[in-house]
Amino acid sequence: MKLRFLFSLCLGASLVAGAQGGYQDGVDNFNAGRLDVAKVILNNTLNDAATDKAVSHFYLGCIDFAEGNVAQAKANFEKGVQLNPTYADNYIGLGEVALRSGNKSEAENYFKTAINTNKKDPSLLVGVARAYFNVDPVAYKKEIDKNIAKALKDSKNEEASVYVLQGDMVAKEDPGEAAGLYEMAITQDQAKDIVNREAYVKYANTFFHVNPSYTIEKLKEFYDRAPNSALAQRELAEKYYDNNQMGSAWKMYEKYVENPNHFRKDEQRYAGLLYSAKEYDKSIEWANKILSEDATVYPMYRILMLDYTALGNDSLAVVNGEKLFNYPNAQLTAADYTFYGDALSNAKRAPEAVAIYEKAIELNPDKPELLPKLSAVYDRAGEEAKAVEILKKYLDMGNGSVNDLFSMARRYASFARTFEKETPERIAACDEGLKYIDMAIEKVPDNGLLFYTKGQLFLTKNNDKPDAQMATAYEDMIRCFDADPANKEKRSSYYAAADYLLGVYYTDVDKAKAKEYFEKYLEIRPDDEAVVKMIENL
Prior knowledge:
Structural class: mainly alpha
Radius of gyration: 34 Å
Number of strands: 0
Largest sheet: none
Strand content: under 5%
Mean pLDDT: 90
């Protein structure tokens, strides 16, 4: 089961350790579209001795652009130029600033300066084309096409960044074509023994929804070529997760969280993935580790609540649910209320569970599927009337599975027994239950449990005296169960109850049948001397 809400409330990005790959990790993450991660890495590594500060300022400027902070973007590009006037991308950045401000001639001067730093580098032409594309792909189509054509000509069609840009230009309209272009970029750089990380990740993000299996194979290729890359590890883990391959996802995340370049929120995701993969003990271990290192990561209480619920440790599930709900200013989801309500209900704290479920319904009026949970808690609390009222509301909306209809019939069976025998209320409750059990049987006519409940309702309606309607229901139950010989053992208690009551019913109707059913009953309950005497008296 996918539980994306587990990962939707992660705290802000923060590196657990220094980025081993330095500023280049920031560049890679920017190209992969993970701007928040890129920004943290680039800022954290800006003063490292190995950092090319001109490069870092360029990418920080690009992130500023994406965040709508044009003035700060310009400042970063200018700082980059000061640090290294030969690094051309900062001129391209300044050109984009000018272009966005409506000053095309100034932009063209910056672009010209950039290209003149190295006229043999076709990637600079691609950078200029991208700047035009970023500002207005329609208005500057001529300029974009011109620079792309020259880059292809100068590189003899071998410049990988051209294909990446072309892929970006069509990704929204034609993912298949975009994926082909990204693959072309991968192939061109592969011939030069270069791992084009940007192209691999963009390929995966574009083509995954078209062909998940092939996309994962492509990311495996990326990982095989760069096994120590945090980006390769994380992107492959993410696609495993998106393809519901939880086992593979958590195993890849296990490698990723050992990489010094991972983030705290990645550890949170790992703990959640372990829960989804039913690796509950490992999930508990990681959630506790995270909380011991940073007590403000309160979403881990959510993970612990779910882990302990899955392990059947209701008391610890409630303890961690309380910590989640009592954490100051915690961002809670409707699902939190549901799971906390489940924990309280399992711990037999019904009144508190009712309050939590009611809050969940209040927060999620568009999710009527919460009503059966509330009904079940009322039922466990012995409030049969309320349990019936809530579930009836749900079913009368046109919702409900066969199981819901079955539950409703059983609720009415319990509700009916709260009234004295031979009262109109008891009969009315049984009639309502029979209505719902017949609806369930119409959908699934070969389920013995449904017929058993129908027999129970007829028995209750007739003041616990077996009648022909009850007998028909139980005989239908036996017919359904007999279809699978294993039921003789698995459903023996149902057979015993039906055989006994059918024996009682047929005592005054057909003594031979009565004897037959009593004898079947004794095969299951051979020590029941009262039934032995009943046979003797027939």
